Amino acid sequence: MIVPMYKYAFLVYHSAYKDFLKEIRKIGVVHISIKNNEPTPEMQELFRHLNEVDKAAKKLDMLEPEKSETKPAFKTGEEVFNRLKAMEKEMEHNHHQVLQLEKEKKQLVPWGNFDWKQVQNLEGQGVHIRFMSCPVRKYNPEWEEKFYLHVIGDQDGYRYFVKIEKTENGIPENGFDEISGADELILPNRSLSQVKEEIEKREGDAGTLTHELHQIAFYCKPLLKSYHDEIQQQLAEQNALLQTTEEVEGKVKMLEGWVPETKKAELDNYLEENRILHTTDKAEEEDKVPILLKNNRFAKLYEVIGELYELPNHKELDLVPFFAPFYMMFFGFSLGDAGYGLIIIAAAQFMKKKMPNLKSVMSLAQWLGLATVIFGVLTGTFFGIDLINSDIPWLESVKTYMISTDKLFNLAIIFGVIQIIFGMVLKVINITRVRGFLYSLSTIGWLVLMVGFGSVYGLQTKEIISPQVAGIAQIAVFAVAGVLILLINHPKRNIFMNFGAGLWDVYSMATSLLGDILSYIRLFALGVSSAILGLVFNSMALSMKPDIPVLGPLVMIIILVVGHGITIFMSALGAFVHPIRLTFVEFYKNAGFTGGGRPYKPFAEPASKNE
């Protein structure tokens, strides 16, 4: 159900305006109307900063919290954020330094751990050493007869050697002789041991920073969350000021907003007590009204699925309570294994304790698991075991109530027809609410055609009515439906315009309805594929286990656990996605869903403070 909204306009003297904003923020029920969509530079900076804090919080969530004897000495969330930013820069710098050091280490490894001071001493005594390399296959032993060379060693297909030259005042006696095919190397001016020591130091620093990060993840998440809320609050205050207009040469401030019918009492009391001038009006058809949903405990769980598509606008029905039972049923139909349903229920119960913030999602998973158990019992499937064809004596009396594969196909089509007809009934209600009953006559005509023709066909098949009576009834159904669809489908057009539009409507509906109904066959396909996958892994486990007393059962258990784990994941994913497709495409379309609603977001203090 969509909670009715009231449009408020507040007129406040400029000197009392800041106090007024503080009070309505405490009350926390006013959704401020957006008149100016262009944020101020201050708001843009806050948005950027909020995004950075949000990223920092998400990175902390990915870390394993680590408790320590000494708690980090942070007093505010801003301090935590600034430290995280500084640590990020340190770690990034450290990482680049290690990469550079590893590169230097790779250059020095072929030469071993020599002392650069000795090389420099030799330079001072007129001996110049050049570090050179070439591919092993290109190394010419004759070079050793022509130059003073000393081979250091071979590595990765290259030969490393030094060329020794006599110099006077830093200049070789015969000039710098080059060796064709060899390259001179410029080595780092420190030893291999020094580089390794520096790498160890850098890695130690990285370990210390990582340790500190894990400590922050354990102790400081609430501080960071509080800082995140503070920034959001600043943004909300800036937005309230942005949406405020000035009247009477700036002496009066005016603010407009929306308040749910169920939450307006406290605000009205405050406004009356403080004698604040205001107006209250109901929503008009052209207004952009924020949407607040209010459903029972069962339907409320499915709001998260409805939000994946779009919120309804304030003029139409909230379809969540109407698709919720169907979605639950379709999920169970698609997964259709009682064993898998029990695992989903148990896993969701475990996750409720581990992640209390996801309690509503886990409750939804348990309802879907319950539907899976019910359909698994109806189809006789338990962890891939076909109970209908199994030789279990105590199940014989129950097998008569189980559904075979042929009946499962028909059931999927029946469910589709029922949901489509139900959607069209809701469409009639929606059109009546928004435009008036006369505009829904065409949809009523299609309902008369589908329900009437189906009823006549069913009665004739069961021989409740004779073929002659059935023929007369069919003509009557076609006549009534034809008049509604072709002649009076729009109250403000003439009969000829209606007839042309009706013919196009007949073409569109005839083609789309058939496709919509056939789409529900996917429920049957998913249910059968899930059962087949489970059966395949059961057969693999039995056929692949070795005939060894201990190893055989162990191998079988591993295959069953892995195989059914894969099946549950893949089948549950399909069972989640495809009913969503049936809901948002087939059901929403036939229910005449328009959407476009914006969520209700009141100007309020952070939830943590309200609690």
Automatic annotation (TrEMBL):
Keywords: Ion transport, Membrane, Transmembrane, Transmembrane helix, Transport
Membrane topology (UniProt): Multi-pass membrane protein
Localization: Membrane
Membrane-crossing segments per the record: 322-346, 367-388, 408-429, 436-457, 469-488, 520-542, 554-577
A Pfam family the protein falls into: V_ATPase_I
Cellular component, GO, one term: proton-transporting V-type ATPase, V0 domain
UniProt GO MF annotations: ATPase binding; proton-transporting ATPase activity, rotational mechanism
Record keyword Nucleus present: no
Main location: membrane
Keyword Transmembrane helix listed: yes
Family annotation (InterPro entries): V-ATPase_116kDa_su
Family: Belongs to the V-ATPase 116 kDa subunit family.
Annotated PANTHER family: V-TYPE PROTON ATPASE SUBUNIT A, VACUOLAR PROTON ATPASES
Protein name: V-type ATP synthase subunit I
Source organism of the structure: Mariniphaga sediminis
